């Protein structure tokens, strides 16, 4: 990830007290949401023995590792080690925390230090996140000329009087995830358009 | 995949499977330390193991076929319990795991995961504390031992009826072979033996050969094997999701606590041996 | 009296274990040494199940083999609510269709799992590709259902269509496929896991 905000998921796809694994440019990240509604994006790795935190469980506002139940508070600090219930956990034991924000129905993250503005997005109807076996250049080429690039990893498509806002992130070479929110129109109509985009992009990628 | 040059790893005995799985007149191909290995069983029942054109030494201890790609300094480790006539020898079937075999051994030595990975069986979240235990490197035999381990278990074994505090001892005989000794549910003065013989195919791909020598004359084979397989498959989802896949030995890469004494000693032992197969290369750290 | 011939690591057997738990049905469990013992291929087992197929359910003299048949029987004969196998025309056909899918195309994941775990014969990469294609079909369907306000494969409540598909999805890690690419499946499998009477199995990354 870069200093720019990258969309990773739709907010509705990470309900309270759940985790969601995402892969961004071959790096494993975990999105999780506490009972308080706060979304977090962390490196998907427990510092104890390297277990992926995305397979863990959220209780209240803490993410717990599946392997030994180590419990991490929202800021990333490990607050409890069940094997040693009386231990004051050293402050140095922490999960890898990334910046996280929600806007326009999507969950965004970034890895830089400098200030960066979140894209301006209206509140629309979340449609879906869609995995496409093609890189973003192919997808954008197939969607042209109807697309308007509205951000670094954001574009919109006009369809039947509605605007469909599509954030994307690169999963790995040749694989991209789209995250779509419809402004006006129906989510079903937007979904048909996205599936058509998927078919065309994958067809071109396979050719 | 190229064959390893890790001399220390090559000069060891490795299990390739249970003798009963190699049938007369059949041939099997497997991998060991990055090399293809062929196992031929003649119609008369004689077994020959080769790597390329090289004939490899073999042993048949404890109902398993053992081989080496190098020259082991010693025979296969001794397992005296195998000579006790009232024990049942149970082969639980090889299982492939996409992880470094060293991670499999470490997981086998670990107690703190019982309440979370084997919930309501080998542990419960209501009693997660790992009491202090002892570890020892027995340099005369070059083995690692962990003793005086204890853990409350709701269902300690197939034949267990109700919870018990299980006592454990662990014995690591080579970097890829380990056994645990556990209070037998039906004979509290004796130990059940559960062994894990790991066959490292590639640095991040292993076959586990689980084996048991137990005091139990009531459970069927299906029950004993089913119980052990269930435990192992619960561990497998963890093993395949540890990052990195290879075992990191550089300080600061992972964070042990007092409950991890066995694994701390195991990693120190691997470093002493300058073991490389299955270990994260220092230059690989991003 | 229900006697259920079961193998703890089998995803097919798990379909039935799961429904037995969700229906709260008492039963006798008969463990079978499927691997490494291959007990299911022995003549004695084949008198119950001629192809050695598992699971097998005996219900007061009736003998059934194969997960989908057992699921249908349990829902038909032992579910007073009638929800698990709905009879109305707009639901019955779709449930059968998705059962056939679970027994058909989705089985690529089961075969991939068996190959990944036990080194069974086969092209693991091809099976995984077929498995992903099947997962995509289910993902798209659940996305459609989600937009229509539905949360289950068919109808307003969970049916045996959900139970038949669940193991392949929940155990996808065993053959190296995670749910990162399938957000609708991810949400759906969590809902299945919260059903009252849910029972898990080894290999499902599960803790509450």
Number of domains of chain C: 2
Give the CA-CA distance, first to last residue of chain A: 29 Å
- Give the beta-strand count of chain C: 4
CATH superfamily of the largest domain in chain A: Rieske [2Fe-2S] iron-sulphur domain
The overall pLDDT average of chain A reads 94
Question: Which of globular, elongated, flat, extended, rod-shaped describes the shape of chain C?
Answer: globular
Helix content of chain C: 40-55%
Structural class of the secondary elements of chain A?
mainly beta
CATH architecture of the largest domain in chain C: Up-down Bundle
What letter string, H or E per element, gives the SSE order of chain A?
Answer: EEEEEEEEEEEHEEEEH
The strand order across the widest sheet of chain A is 1-10-9-4-3-2
| Count of the separate structural domains of chain A | 2
CATH architecture heading of the largest domain in chain A: 3-layer Sandwich
Helix proportion of residues of chain A, in percent? 10-25%
SSE map:
The complex is a heterotrimer of chains A (207), B (286) and C (208).
Chain A: E1 6-10, E2 18-24, E3 27-33, E4 39-43, E5 57-59, E6 62-64, E7 71-73, E8 78-80, E9 97-103, E10 106-110, E11 125-132, H1 136-143, E12 147-151, E13 154-159, E14 162-172, E15 175-183, H2 187-206
Antiparallel strand pairs in A: 1-10, 2-3, 3-4, 4-9, 5-6, 6-7, 7-8, 9-10, 11-15, 12-13, 13-14, 14-15
Helix pairs in contact in A: 1-2
Chain B: H1 7-10, E1 14-18, E2 27-32, E3 35-41, E4 47-51, E5 54-55, E6 58-59, E7 64-67, E8 88-91, E9 95-97, H2 101-109, H3 114-117, E10 134-138, E11 143-153, E12 164-174, E13 177-184, E14 187-202, E15 205-214, H4 221-239, H5 261-273
Antiparallel strand pairs in B: 1-7, 2-3, 3-4, 4-5, 6-7, 8-15, 9-15, 10-11, 11-12, 12-13, 13-14, 14-15
Chain C: E1 2-6, H1 11-23, E2 28-31, H2 43-46, E3 56-59, E4 62-65, H3 67-78, H4 89-103, H5 107-118, H6 124-147, H7 160-170, H8 183-193
Parallel strand pairs in C: 1-2
Antiparallel strand pairs in C: 1-3, 3-4
Helix pairs in contact in C: 1-3, 1-7, 4-7, 5-6, 6-8
